[in-house]
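Fig. S4 source data, part A: sequence.
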Amino acid sequence: MRPERSKPAGKQQRSWGHVMPLTVVLVFSALLVTALVAVNQYLSNPRNLPIKTIAIKGKFRHLDRDNLRRVMSKAIDGGFFTTDIQRIRQAGLSLPWVDDVSITRVWPDQLIMEVTEQQPVARWGDKALVNGRGQVFYPVKPMRKWPELRLSGADEKAPVVLGFYAQVKAAFAARNLHIRSLALDERAEWNMRLDNGLEIVLGRDDAAERLQRFLGLYGEISSKELKPVRADLRYEQGFAVDWQEQDTGSGQESDA
């Protein structure tokens, strides 16, 4: 019988040498995954790392800082990592006087909220205000002093009304006149009133051109002894003016 040959010791050691590093890698990977899962579960638990401090930054004239903090605090639905920032932001934006909100997390338990207050440029209708971007908002409480400029129309038309006002106001200012009200009605017709009491009916078509034609003759109109109280520009080739006598208060109409 031939004697049984044994494998060389060197080859056995080399085999174990390949197996051991692979085992270590697998064990380490399993431990790492377990640790990551545990950390994720810990951070996902809203009772861990709760939000303890809310800092609100901004200059306010109409917003109540304490009320703002209460409203936004109620929207917090998790811990430092899990709370829904967009939900908190939308809670702030739901307040009429809030124009914009940005929120930053500050480790380990703080939220910093930069709040921009609405800046109204005009009164909108009877109960609302409009900002410089043509966004209408309704204050919960009426203002003690409303803006002098009053714009009106359907809410979705606010950018159009504000844009037309911006287009024509300089022409009035050049004549030392100021628009006090500007309205776009449901028939898409324009009507305005100036600070001297003059009402101007513009109609719906070519309103800017008609107004330019009227203002070109306004110097002559205002130089007369009678005071113009109403100008109807809804004519193809001219306009009609209603006059009021300063002393008697009687009125008469003429065409231009």
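Fig. S4 source data, part B ends here. The chain is about 35% helix and 25% strand.
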